[in-house]
Protein: Flagellar biosynthesis protein FlgC
Amino acid sequence: MLRGLYAAGAGMISQQRKQEMLSNNIANINTPGYKEDQGSLRTFPDMMIKALGTDHIQTTGSNHVGTLATGVYMQEQTPNFTQGDIQETGNNTDVALLQALVPINEETDEEAMLVFETQNDNGDIRYTRNGNFAIDSQGTLTNSSGHYILGVDGNPITVNNENITINSEGQIFSAEQDLLGQINVAVVTDPGQLVKEGEGLFRYDGDNDVVTAVDNDEVTFQLQQGFVERSNVDATRTMTEMMTALRTFEANQKVLQAYDQTMQRTVNDVGKIG
Structure:
């Protein structure tokens, strides 16, 4: 009996975690460059059931009865790196990254991911698809969390004011048509090794080199000034999945309640001496 109770409890926990993941996706539906999380549910390893008596052994020649599933769990959450829709903002410091031709990872059969390269005050490198940029008090181009946007030379880009023009290759020109720098677009060949850190930033934990997409024959991309990439969250599908997760949670809850009532009756009524 306790096996079924544990299985129902595991089902409730996995659906609760899925609901939390989907709720976070919905909460970030208007966050530029946000990549939705996807969860995968897996079953725990099956258990082999063996008979304790001898009748089964005499009949079949073995004490193996069969296998028993022991519940499910959420194995992992992985970002969905598909391109989001492009939205016009009209802001000179907003830049949308549109990737076209990218290399395919031979080991994972995944497409590479193009990202903006940023750096914080400690020198840590992080990556993002959020092109909602700004200019800090020093005239340096930053993202919404204050990280410096790096150029192809690996240094922060100083633009001084918003009177700038950014072409499709990421070159930044002043109002006087002076070249101020070029935004670096990095190529992550194994995007599965990108780890979310919040605020639209990713940490790269892979072993492959992160190279630039600028003047890279294997990569084709385009930057659009005055636009941002929207999140790739599908509101309709996500709401449907949330309702399904809720109903599955409630079904497991009813199973758990039924086991609880059965155990309560067993303890209070079975074996009672009249």
About this structure: The longest strand covers residues 72-79. Residues 86-229 form one domain.
